[in-house]
Amino acid sequence: RGSVITLLFRDENRGPERLNYCPKSHSQLGQSWGSDPGLLVPPRQRPRCPPTPRPLQNLLLLWTFLNCGLGGSAQGPGEWTPWGSWSRCSSSCGRGLSVRSRRCVWFPGEEPCWGDSHEYRLCRLPDCPLGAIPFRDLQCAIYNGHPVLGSQKTYQWVPFYGAPNQCDLNCLAEGHAFYHSFGRVLDGTPCSPGTQGLCVAGRCLSAGCDGLLGSDAREDHCGRCGGANESCLLVQRVFRDSGAFAGYWNVTLIPEGARHIRVAHRSRNHLALMGGDGRYVLNGNWAVSPPGTYEAAGTRVVYTREAGPEEMLSAAGPTSHDLLLQVLLREPNPGIEFEFWLPRERYSPFQAQAQAQALGWSLRQQQPGEVVGQPPERPAAPATYVPRIPTPAPDPCAPCPDTRGRAHRLLHYCGSDFVFRARVLSRRHQAQETRYEVQVQLIYKNRSPLRALEYVWALGRCPCPRLDLHREYLLAAQRLISPDGTQDRLLLPHTGYARAWSPAEDSRVRLAARHCPR
Predict the structure, then answer these.
(1) List the disulfide bonds (predicted).
(2) Who's near 126: CB < 8 A, 6+ residues apart?
(3) CA-CA distance, 504 to 268, in Å (whole number)?
């Protein structure tokens, strides 16, 4: 009599399925079961194997004993077939799911395969049009006009979300105070409105960062799916500069690529955020912004201010360009906590800049201005006659942003073509530009010769920084040549370096010159 070996396919939906294996010859015993499609036959078509000679039959039994009884494969789990292709998305718009499956091949005596036979992933399609009927509503509407509950009475059904299992098709009878469960919802149905989970086989699953539903894969702080924070570093510090004057003070530069940004403090001061173009995102120009969500540097910044003195900024990131964090001081600074995660390749430049901020002295200039909507308390004036002083005409130009700081000085000194000391002789507005005539008194850095009298140009009729007549400044300017070569100008960049000259500022500039990259 011939020898028949039985194989089992295991499918979680249909259970084990037997297949009979009939070896054709001794030389074919070493081949895998799938190498010859003719070797696998359905169970109801059990083949009549040709008689096998007894010596060959004994050899077959010995081979089976050695490979199935003593070999490790028979004692371990079965083997999965390769994954099939992904199915079409379960939805025609919005979010849905796609599924693929595989089968388990196992011998008698083996354990079933380890793992899942089906895998689900999230698929995203264009948003559904306004007025489109939600998927769960369509499933409830199938039973409209059909008798249920063992009576001939019919109802109109709408989704009911108050039942315990949100992946059951729970439908409320319109105009009545009861609901009925029609079994499970179809796979791909949202668990509930406004949530990210989808129902799969009666369970509410959320997608991991790999797009697979039910996956535990999560992004690390560096933005890598399934990572362990190896490619980024945490910056966590406290800014404790007390501040001798009211006004805007630089706290830190938040570099491009920063993630998981968090800033918090408890005081009557206000956090301010400036973009790379020199414009304030919030709390700029002495005006307090309302709490809310603001777009900045390619991310959303959430600004909260509690009824007490607590204020907070947070952003998921990553930032598409640098942001400057400042504080608008109205009282001594008790400390500002900030933290963010930086890619490793951006940490060293940030650290170098932080060290540059430690150079020199921490002198700050008082900025005239008053926080709009929150004027400081003033003591009551004595009941005596005070002569009326004429109020000066309001300045049509808005206050310039605070650009003081050691990092700002180092950045402009190293990146400018000219750094020199000059006295402002005249100022003239021409179209949308401002031209200063200056007398050069001392040159710290120049890439071409400077004359004793030069014109320095600034953009706008209210340039920042603004130069007062007959005062001496330390200026960092760039050379700007028009494409046709007809104009050769010294340009003072917007929010550039222009400090009133003093012996202390002279020492700081000379110190900054030592730290420019060679």
Answers:
(1) 89-123, 93-128, 104-113
(2) 93, 94
(3) 31
What pLDDT score was predicted for residue 3? 42
Looking at residue 59, its pLDDT comes to: 53
Read off the pLDDT of residues 438-448 as tens digits, 9 standing for 90 and up: 999 989 988 88
Q: Give the integer Cα–Cα distance in Å for 166 and 160.
A: 9
CA dist 434 and 414 (Å) reads 25
Q: With beta carbons less than 8 A apart as the criterion, state whether 230 and 114 touch.
A: no
Residue 313 CA to residue 333 CA, distance in Å, equals 17
Q: What is the 3-state secondary structure (H, E, C) of 313-378?
A: EEECCCCCCCEEEEEEECCCCCCEEEEEEEEHHHHHHHHHHHHHHCCCCCCCCCCCCCCECCCCCC
Residue 92 sits at the vertex; the CA angle it makes with 91 and 97, to the nearest 5 degrees, is 25
CB 333 within 8 A of CB 243: yes
Distance (Å, whole) CA 478 – CA 395:
28
| CA–CA distance, 134 with 96 (Å, rounded to integer) | 12
> In the structure, what pLDDT confidence band is assigned to residue 471 with cuts at 50, 70 and 90?
very high
The pLDDT tens digits for 385-439 are: 444 444 445 556 777 877 777 778 888 888 888 999 999 999 988 878 899 999 9
Q: Cα 108 from chain centroid?
A: 51
Distances (CA, A) of 484 to 7, 126, 157, 204, 417: 84, 49, 75, 67, 20
For 219, which DSSP code?
B
Residue with token string 């310039």 = 400
SS3 259: strand
- Parallel/antiparallel/unpaired status of strands 453-459 and 488-491: parallel
Helix (H, G, I), strand (E, B) or coil at 419: strand
Chain-centre distance for alpha carbon 495: 29
Whether the pLDDT of residue 5 is over 70: the answer is no
Concatenated DSSP letters of 421-487: EEEEEEEEEETTEEEEEEEEEEEEEESS---SEEEEEEESSS-SS---TT-EEEEEEEEEE-TTS--
Query: What single string gives the DSSP state of each residue in 8-63?
Result: EEEETTTEEEEEEE----GGGTTS-TTS-GGGEE-GGG---PPP--HHHHHHHHHH
pLDDT tens, position by position, 257-267: 999 999 999 99
Q: How far apart are CA 278 and CA 238, in angstroms?
A: 24
